[in-house]
């Protein structure tokens, strides 16, 4: 709450609510400004295959350097952007910059690596969405199979309801569709089954009690098994401890991501990661080392 009130609030003289409203207005003006000026940056977090230990993708995450908004958690800024109708413009920049980055890595000789891009319903619902992303792919010589689109269950359902067929269309073009923060939503499993998704990304809250809490272990094991039954990949996010990674390997999770391996990296560090640390999981000695 203190955070939402922000800086420059004169609590002793201004009623708190006025101050919060004032802060919100200046945050919004700032968000409009950086959206107009595309004053954003991306950082990249490795996603590593559990079995081979190699980096299979980098997830692009939005950052707002040089802005007072950098003081807020990114998802709060994203929420504000959604509320105020700015998210589609931000998403457009994120998609294009992610493609540009993947193209740079390819040009630097980094082999098969995908990019995971976070997105949401308002972006997918733009009338020009499909044509804009096709233009980006062409500009950077990329194929849909190079790209995973991450969206939460809620956003996927919203997109599916409002523009029936948009997810199918993306899927049939060859994009991977990942349900992010899986396990925190409320939709029925039968509805989920009707969505054209390729992977589930287990929410990091699953991991907190693993492996020392039998119930948490059982739920995670069951979700991973369900994913496999539905022929979906399953990635775990927020892996911070080696015991968690061992547990995930044991229950046959497909891939993982988290501070244990690497946090979000700036472009230079990401390139270094991709060119040097090809098998971090093998280095951590949790996955069987792949010969050759
Ligand atoms: P997400 O897509 O679920 O991303 C995972 C978040 O967990 C990221 O926070 C990441 O930095 C953080 N994280 C990664 N590893 C660990 C770990 O081991 N432990 C812990 N505690 N945290 C970890 P971040 O970058 O602040 O992003 C927050 C959320 O904001 C994202 O959640 C995503 O929903 C949204 N977001 C970020 N970038 C974009 C974007 O370009 N577009 C859209 N639409 N949403 C974005
Ligand atoms: Mg994500
Ligand atoms: Mg997530
Ligand atoms: Mg999240």
What does this structure look like?
Helices cover 46% and strands 16% of the residues. The protein is built from 13 helices and 8 strands. An 8-stranded mixed β-barrel has the order 1-2-3-4-5-6-7-8, surrounded by 5 helices. α9 links the parallel β5 and β6 (199-202). α4 runs parallel beside α6 (129-139). The longest helix has 22 residues, at 16-37. Residues 1-6 have low confidence and may be disordered. Bound molecules: ligand C2E and magnesium ion (3 copies). Residues 180-181, 201, 237 line the site of one magnesium ion.
Q: How many helices does DSSP assign?
A: 13
What spatial order of strands do you see in the largest sheet? 1-2-3-4-5-6-7-8
- The strand count comes to 8
Name the overall outline. globular
Termini separation: 53 Å
Q: Tell me the major beta sheet.
A: 8 strands, mixed, barrel
Radius of gyration using CA atoms only: 20 Å
GO molecular function, one term: catalytic activity
Protein name: GGDEF domain-containing protein
Domain EAL: 24-278
Kindly list the characteristics that best describe this protein:
292 residues, alpha/beta, 13 helices, 46% helix, binds ligand C2E, binds magnesium ion, catalytic activity
Can you summarize this structure?
With 292 residues, the chain is α/β, with parallel strands linked by helices. Helices cover 46% and strands 16% of the residues. The N and C termini lie far apart (53 Å).
């Amino acid at each position: 709450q203190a955070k939402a009130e922000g800086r420059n609030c004169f609590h002793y003289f201004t009623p708190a609510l006025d101050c919060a409203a004032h802060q919100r207005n200046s945050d919004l003006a700032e968000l409009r400004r950086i959206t107009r000026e595309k004053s954003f940056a991306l950082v990249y977090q490795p996603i590593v295959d559990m079995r081979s230990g190699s980096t299979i993708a980098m997830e692009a995450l939005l950052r707002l350097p040089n802005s007072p908004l950098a003081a807020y958690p990114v998802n709060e800024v994203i929420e504000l952007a959604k509320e105020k109708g700015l998210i589609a413009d931000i998403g457009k920049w994120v998609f294009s910059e992610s493609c540009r980055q993947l193209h740079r890595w390819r040009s630097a000789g980094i082999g098969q690596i995908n990019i995971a891009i976070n997105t949401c319903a308002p972006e997918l619902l733009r009338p020009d969405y499909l044509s804009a992303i096709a233009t980006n792919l062409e500009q950077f010589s990329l194929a849909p199979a190079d790209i995973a689109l991450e969206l939460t269950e809620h956003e996927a359902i919203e997109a599916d309801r409002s523009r029936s067929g948009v997810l199918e269309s993306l899927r049939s073009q060859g994009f991977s569709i990942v349900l992010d923060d899986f396990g925190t939503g409320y939709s029925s499993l039968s509805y989920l089954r009707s969505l054209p998704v390729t992977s589930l990304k287990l929410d990091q809250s699953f991991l907190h009690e693993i492996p020392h809490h039998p119930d948490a272990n059982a739920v995670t094991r069951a979700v991973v098994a369900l994913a496999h039954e539905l022929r979906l990949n399953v990635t775990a996010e927020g892996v911070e401890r080696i015991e968690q990674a061992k547990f995930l390997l044991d229950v046959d999770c497909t891939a993982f991501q988290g501070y244990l391996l690497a946090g979000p990296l700036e472009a230079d560090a990401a390139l270094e990661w991709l060119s040097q640390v090809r098998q971090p999981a093998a280095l951590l000695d949790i996955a069987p080392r792949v010969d050759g």
